[in-house]
Design brief:
heterodimer, A: alpha/beta, 2 domains, 12 helices, B: about 130 residues, alpha/beta, Rossmann fold, five-stranded parallel sheet, 5 helices, 5 strands, about 40% helix, about 20% strand
């Protein structure tokens, strides 16, 4: 049985192996990903983002339990930061989801960012496809704890939840650009703390300030993830948002943008790899660099020369 | 090609609540460039094996101070065999009497690290013994 066949049959080891290959040797994973692609597109991808310690993992654990009660299967991708110094990482999100480890309807995978800066790991979108093909109804993608501008999740998820907690700053924070702009749903967690009501009020006020007519106004939910309070309402909110996306064929539009970005990335990487493979042979690139260093050529001319590689000898382009 | 990070699951089976050692080791392995999945206290063998398989780890490190290793360690190995995952390197650490070690090794635990072991010794052992590929 091939890895792809194993994954379609729901074999956990096959899923695990292909994810490892996608992370470590992405080129080797291409045939399996191609075989799986016709079986993808059914899962709903829900992004969870927010500052470190805001309760994202606990929330994901709770939301998953609720979806399991409703008979849905769930995949979870939990991203934690990789050390820029050693390449190592502590992946600790599972601590908050311990009792899900033995549920056959749930698959959890922890990933290190391995140098990516947008809040996700580079292989995340392919891992989503693998879990999608394996038949998961919902896929949660939990970002690293973010600051203000790590917004890759919005290019990855159908629905994005932004988790906030009391005590992070005043109302000016809520009108700044960045992660607050990407929310389809707001969750104010740790709502048993003092000032949680104020955070909700400030968010509502920020939403009132919006100058454009919006079709979807992000709802603001209060939760206490550790006790499970407010979780059912968030699950309903996610379902409502998906319903809204489906009604207006917005889901297709969002996904189409994702396909565009993905194809462009593959093209860019492919072209760069081909060009650099060609130019590294026989020290051609080093010679060019030396010419730039000696001010015989400028960087633009050098880059142009590289870009002309295949158009010049008729191998491609027009 | 860049070396892939070794993935290690550090787990505490059973009921003891002391995870200082596990955390020190997790941190040391992180600093040695490994991806360490840390799952916290009071894990059942079923949870540990389920996690190890989903995370496709190269190594499972079991830390135990309660004295229940003679029961819990073999149970982990049995579950790994049942699920065809006994290629994962399993090591143990904690308060484990010398006399118990041969039996644990016979069950398939590759190595046992007792108090006084340096974190460097564990790092070296993992790097030398982890499966290739």
């Amino acid at each position: 049985m091939t890895l792809a066949e194993g994954i379609l049959a729901g074999d956990q080891r096959a899923i695990a192996r292909l994810i490892t290959i996608v992370e470590n040797r992405p080129r080797e994973a291409i045939p399996a990903l191609q075989a799986l692609y016709p079986h993808t597109g059914k899962a709903l991808v829900v992004g969870i983002t927010g500052p470190p310690g805001s309760g994202k993992s606990t929330l994901v654990g709770r939301l998953t339990k609720r979806l399991r009660q409703l008979g849905k299967t769930v995949g979870i991708i939990a991203v934690d930061p990789t050390s820029p110094f050693t390449g190592g990482a502590i992946l600790g999100d599972r601590i908050r989801m311990q009792d899900l480890a033995t549920d056959p309807g749930v698959y959890i995978r922890s990933m290190g960012t391995r140098g990516s800066l947008g809040g996700l790991a580079k292989a995340t979108h392919n891992v989503i496809k693998i879990l999608d093909a394996a038949g998961k109804d919902y896929i949660f993608v939990e970002t690293v704890g973010v600051g203000q501008s790590e917004v890759d999740i919005v290019k990855t998820a159908d629905t994005t939840l932004v988790v906030l907690v009391p005590g992070l700053g005043d109302d000016i924070q809520t009108i700044k650009a960045g992660i607050l702009e990407i929310a389809d749903i707001f969750v104010v967690n740790k709502a048993d703390r003092q000032d949680a009501g104020r955070v909700v009020a400030e968010l509502e006020m920020m939403l009132d300030l919006s100058s454009k007519e919006v079709e979807w106004r992000p709802p603001v939910y209060s939760t206490v993830a550790t006790s499970g309070k407010g979780i059912d309402a968030v699950v309903e909110g996610i379902e409502q948002h998906i319903h809204y996306l489906c009604q207006n064929s917005k889901l297709e539009a969002r996904r189409r943008e994702r396909y565009r970005a993905e194809i462009m990335n593959i093209v860019k990487e492919g072209i760069i790899t081909q060009l650099l493979d060609f130019w590294s042979v026989g020290g051609k690139l080093e010679t060019l660099l030396a010419e730039v260093a000696a001010r015989e050529k400028d960087p633009y001319a050098a880059a142009w020369e590289i870009m002309q590689t295949f158009t010049g000898n008729g191998k491609g382009g027009s | 090609m860049k070396e892939r990070p070794i993935r290690v699951l550090i787990a505490k089976p059973g009921l003891d609540g002391h995870d200082r050692g596990a955390k020190v080791l997790a941190r040391a392995l992180r600093d040695a460039g490994m991806e360490v999945i840390y799952t916290g206290l009071r894990q059942t063998p079923e949870q540990i094996v389920g996690t190890g398989i989903q995370e496709d780890v190269d190594v499972i490190g079991l830390s135990i101070l309660s004295g229940a290793h003679t029961h819990l360690f073999p149970r982990v190995m049995e579950l790994l065999r049942e699920r065809g995952a006994n290629d994962i390197l399993v090591i143990g650490g904690g308060i484990i009497p010398e006399d118990d070690i041969p039996a644990l090794k016979k069950e398939g635990i590759a190595e046992i690290f007792t108090p006084g072991t340096t974190t460097q010794a564990v790092i070296d052992y993992i790097k030398e013994n982890v499966r290739q590929g």
